[in-house]
């Protein structure tokens, strides 16, 4: 019988979560680098360069890869010969590890977990509780897989109860475009097939704990139907031309991971969960000898890639920019922003709309006329930082507020992640505004352009408060211009056509 001390599990969970906040799995870095080398779409290649540069910066600086440091998911396999030394439950041990990790003074992680999700939605302040899956297995060890899953990719999860005769590949190909780019491709797709609805979803999540190995599978050839499906789905999804950050390109997914389970004769449950450009997971085993701590990778393993906006980038002063200037910006153009901007996410937009509708008006310091708002919830700063990692959040969540805010405040532009929906695009066109896109998965790189940050409204919202940022040369792309042209529509369409034309050429 093995005795496992509760402090060893707590320390191991805390260490793993700190580790994955700033170290990508090396298999992911190698896969992105290979995709970067293969990519011919300039926009997608630029996005992947930012992701790789950001990754190395985080590994060196021990700061989060993404400002969304995730909701913690843990898979625990407890050997039936294990005895615990301590007075906490297994869930309490894990949650104490989460608490210690997210409150670590040298690398504070963003607390994103809210209680009362259908009501008051109050932040727990320490990112607890985790979502924990426990199974009892033969043996005398405790096997733990830990992940931190960002909301942008988690929100794109899909579940379908297919007919047994339906094609899983067809369902995936039809469904992936509906997910948009808010899950920050290139990433992985976790797919669960069989069981029941909830079993399929759990398998899809657990599948994402595996390493990227599809190139090895392709080299040796599939040995069963699941392996065949992995290759078929990956090829079919990449042929869609969605590309990095949804800008159009050759690589949308780096791997497809599948777990399956027996199911009812009348059923074919299929769940699909994407992992984003901030893929974060770690594994450890406790055997009674003490905590199991992660081993830092060698920084020489990161590819030597540099990133710059290029000579063609347009420099813009946010303090003096006019509507006439904005009207000249072209879809896909790189802009370097300097000056002052405000920030605001879902909760802030809801609050602003309520205040305007009530006649009370916006708080002092929140004058949006002629200004830009950045959809971000930053990590708290440490040491000499003015702000922690501050990458963009998924912009479609603000779509329902867009027309109202543009009309009532005179807001000139918005900055966020991924595409805008039809309602927001129409509002942007109607008001002659603009939407700019920053790269999701490059939060630390983005934060280096922020020279000052202060909360100006709604401090009780925590990371969802309204800040004023001062920025210098913050890199963004014109994603929806003042005429309503969206690069997230034109880019993937163009690259899908190119990929199809090339395939026809190869066949011919």
Describe the structure.
It is a single chain. With 508 residues, this protein is an alpha/beta fold. It has helices at residues 6-22, 26-38, 42-61, 90-102, 151-154, 168-175, 197-207, 214-220, 225-238, 323-327, 346-358, 399-409, 422-431, 443-447, 487-507, and strands spanning 2-5, 71-79, 82-85, 114-115, 122-123, 131-137, 142-149, 158-162, 187-194, 253-261, 268-275, 281-286, 314-317, 334-343, 372-374, 413-416, 434-437, 450-457, 466-480. The protein folds into 2 domains: 2-288, no CATH class; 314-491, fumarase, CATH 3.20.130. It contains 15 helices and 19 strands. It has a 5-stranded mixed β-barrel with strand order 14-15-16-17-19. Strands 6-2-7-12 form a 4-stranded mixed beta sheet.
State the helix count. 15
Strand line-up of the largest beta sheet = 14-15-16-17-19
Any idea how many domains? 2
Briefly note the structural class of the backbone: alpha/beta
Instruction: Write down the overall mean pLDDT.
Output: 96
Largest sheet: 5 strands, mixed, barrel
Beta-strand content estimate: 15-25%
* Low-confidence spans: none
What is the number of beta strands?
Answer: 19
Please bin the fraction of helical residues.
25-40%
Shape: globular
Question: What is the gyration radius calculated from CA atoms?
Answer: 23 Å
Distance between termini?
65 Å
């Amino acid at each position: 019988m093995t005795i496992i001390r509760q402090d060893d599990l707590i320390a191991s969970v805390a260490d793993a979560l700190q580790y994955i906040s700033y170290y990508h799995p090396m298999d992911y870095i190698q896969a992105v680098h290979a995709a970067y080398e293969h990519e011919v779409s300039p926009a997608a290649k630029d996005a992947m360069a930012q992701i790789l540069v950001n990754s190395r910066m985080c590994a060196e600086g021990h700061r989060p890869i993404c400002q969304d440091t995730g909701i913690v998911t843990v898979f625990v396999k407890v050997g039936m010969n294990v005895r615990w030394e301590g007075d906490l439950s297994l869930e309490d041990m894990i949650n104490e590890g989460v608490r210690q990790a997210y409150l670590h003074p040298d690398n504070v992680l963003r607390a994103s977990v809210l209680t009362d999700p259908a009501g008051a939605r109050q932040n727990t302040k320490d990112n607890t509780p985790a979502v924990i899956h426990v199974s009892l297995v033969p043996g005398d060890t405790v096997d733990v897989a830990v992940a931190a899953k960002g909301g942008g990719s988690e929100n794109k999860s899909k579940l379908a109860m297919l007919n047994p005769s339906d094609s899983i590949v067809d369902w995936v190909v039809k469904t992936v475009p509906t997910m948009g780019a808010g899950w920050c491709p290139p990433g992985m797709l976790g797919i669960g097939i069989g069981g029941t609805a909830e079993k399929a979803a759990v398998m899809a999540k657990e599948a994402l704990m595996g390493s990227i190995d599809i190139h090895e599978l392709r080299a040796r050839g599939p040995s069963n139907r699941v392996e065949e499906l992995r290759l078929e789905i990956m090829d079919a999804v990449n042929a869609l031309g969605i590309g990095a950050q949804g800008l159009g390109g050759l690589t949308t997914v780096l791997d497809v991971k599948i777990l399956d389970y027996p199911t009812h004769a009348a059923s074919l449950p299929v769940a699909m969960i994407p992992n984003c450009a901030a893929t974060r997971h770690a594994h450890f085993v406790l055997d009674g000898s003490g905590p199991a701590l992660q081993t830092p990778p060698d920084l020489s393993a990161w590819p030597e890639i540099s990133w710059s906006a290029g000579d063609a980038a347009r420099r813009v002063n946010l303090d003096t920019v006019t509507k006439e200037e904005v009207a000249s910006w072209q879809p896909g153009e790189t802009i370097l922003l300097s000056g002052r901007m405000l920030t605001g996410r879902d909760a802030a937009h809801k609050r602003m709309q309520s205040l305007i509708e009530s006649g009370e008006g916006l708080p002092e310091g929140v004058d949006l006329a002629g200004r830009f708002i950045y959809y971000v919830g930053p990590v708290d700063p440490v040491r000499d930082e003015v702000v922690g990692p501050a990458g963009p959040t998924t912009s479609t969540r603000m779509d329902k507020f867009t027309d109202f805010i543009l009309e009532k405040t005179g807001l000139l532009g918005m900055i966020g992640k991924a595409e805008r929906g039809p309602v927001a695009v129409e509002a942007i066109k109607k008001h002659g505004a603009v939407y700019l896109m920053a790269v999701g998965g490059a939060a630390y790189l983005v934060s280096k352009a922020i020279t000052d940050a202060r909360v100006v409204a709604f401090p009780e919202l925590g990371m969802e408060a309204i800040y004023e940022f001062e920025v210098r040369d913050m890199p963004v792309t014109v994603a929806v211009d003042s005429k309503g042209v969206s690069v997230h529509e034109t880019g993937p369409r163009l690259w899908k056509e190119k990929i199809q034309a090339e395939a026809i050429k190869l066949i011919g």
